[in-house]
Design a protein that fits this description.
The chain is mainly alpha-helical. The chain has a single domain, classed as 434 Repressor (Amino-terminal Domain) (Orthogonal Bundle), CATH 1.10.260.40. The protein is 65% helix and 0% strand. Helix 3 packs across helix 4 and helix 3 packs across helix 5. It is globular, with a radius of gyration of 13 Å. The chain starts with 5 loop residues before the first helix and ends in a 5-residue tail after the last helix.
Length: 71
């Protein structure tokens, strides 16, 4: 059984966001708009220039999960 590595998860969060966004053919601006985050802040999150709070993480995760759900 593979052990859970919280440090690895935290260090790869921005990469996971970028990959999930690109898999859904979304731009940074689209994701920022849908998650109610400013575009510059979204860019900073994806480029590891800022740390995001749990609230913002949850908004981003919600948008990315909902992107593939049927209407």
């Amino acid at each position: 059984m593979k052990s859970f590595d919280l440090y690895d998860l935290l260090n790869n969060t921005s990469t996971a966001i970028v990959q999930a966004r690109q898999a859904r053919d979304m731009s940074q601006r689209d994701l920022a708009d849908e998650a109610n985050i400013s575009y510059p802040h979204m860019s900073d999150i994806e480029n590891d220039k800022v740390e995001m709070g749990l609230d913002i993480f949850k908004r981003i995760a919600t948008v990315l999960e909902m992107a593939n759900r049927p209407e």
